[in-house]
Fold these 4 entries.
Entry 1:
Amino acid sequence: MTKLPRGAGEQREGIDGKVVSYRERLVPPLIWWLFTIALAGALGIAYGHFLGATIGWITTAISEAVLGGILWFRAAPIVRIDDQVFRAGPARLPLRFVGEIQVLTEAATRSLRGPTTDPDAYLCLRLAVARRAVAVVVADPQDPHPYWLVTSRHPERLAAALTQARDVHATM
């Protein structure tokens, strides 16, 4: 990878980097998948009762594909760090705007997501997946979000990777 000159990041805004240093998909727990199977099965039984077994099986398969797709693509955000940006779900934060990074305990995560949460904070929370989070202060005065709160199964690894990526990006 070629080293970009200082300030080249501003010209590359909106483009993700190529070197991924951390990636985690916050996949829903098994019980959610079992629920989609039960729901698709119920739909298949209902349609199959009136329209025949073949239609019932087809309905079950299509319903499970749709519900599984929704779980996989909409309810399972990706947390990703590359050489340019930090991503949490659909949101992007260029590494030059990553401020203080803090790994939170369960109690601290609970208090930050509670009624005292800043309404402008960006929250990428999947509490059924992980109870702990990482708080990232946004160092961009133009950004409406003062901080990001991102749950992770491995918050220490996420914080370490983000700190390292931010520091490497700052030396470019």
Entry 2:
Amino acid sequence: MYCILVYDVASEKTGKMLRLCRKYLNWIQNSVFEGNITQIKLQELIFEAKKIMNEEVDSLIIFTTRDENWLYKQVIGKDKNPLDTIL
């Protein structure tokens, strides 16, 4: 499935959350990630994120769709991390 993930956590937790999300998805901008992920890997990510965050004040928002082609993406301004970069 294709996933867009956005988090908002306390500043002292952003580094840990950033490293966690980068293990599973592609960094797009600040606290925004996207990419293909299996249901199992998404559940792992959520499980690990809950260890980092305080659910009373922090948030993790996840949008999923079956296929990236079902989603129209438009970037206005600088694309901070274009995904067409070949490693």
Entry 3:
Amino acid sequence: MKTLAIRLEDEQHARLSILAKLAGTSVTDTIRDAIEAHLATLSANPEISAKAAALTEEIEREAAEQRSAIAALFPDTKPATPRGRSTKS
């Protein structure tokens, strides 16, 4: 678990505290729930999904370039199998 410090305006903190108290939950749990809801909204957004696909392609392209550079520098080095992929057919 990670710790995160955020700064809130006094009014925003007051509203958060009151709403958490009225809901019978902690401020921390209210924040966690709000973040989880926002993350779900973002991950369902087709525009964000398209950006994720493009970023994945960029990461794969950069990794391939780095593997090629390592292979050129160290030709006797066996390339590692990417995580989650099997070398068996």
Entry 4:
Amino acid sequence: MSENKLADLSTDFAIEILKLTENIKGHYALSNQLERSGTSIGANIREAKYAHSRADFISKLQISLKECYETEYWIEVAMRADIISNEMAKGILHDCGVIRRMLISSVNTAKENAK
């Protein structure tokens, strides 16, 4: 898939995360971490577009991937603590999984092309 598709999905995902955290009351630390990691995914994807080198490009995508895994963690914590509903978590986890798989594919392709 194209990098634009990945950038668009990650922007939509960041908006989903921001809307979700608006509804989390009394759990500032959790909502803050979720906002930071969930919005960082797209920010690093955008940074990768203007990377200085292939290594920098791969590094930015790998940071996005790490943020994606962190976001999944915070969503799972919120779900297991009954802070967000299972239904709400499922949709966001699905979207996060789609982005994660695209990032893995992009990183693997970039590494293969660097050889």
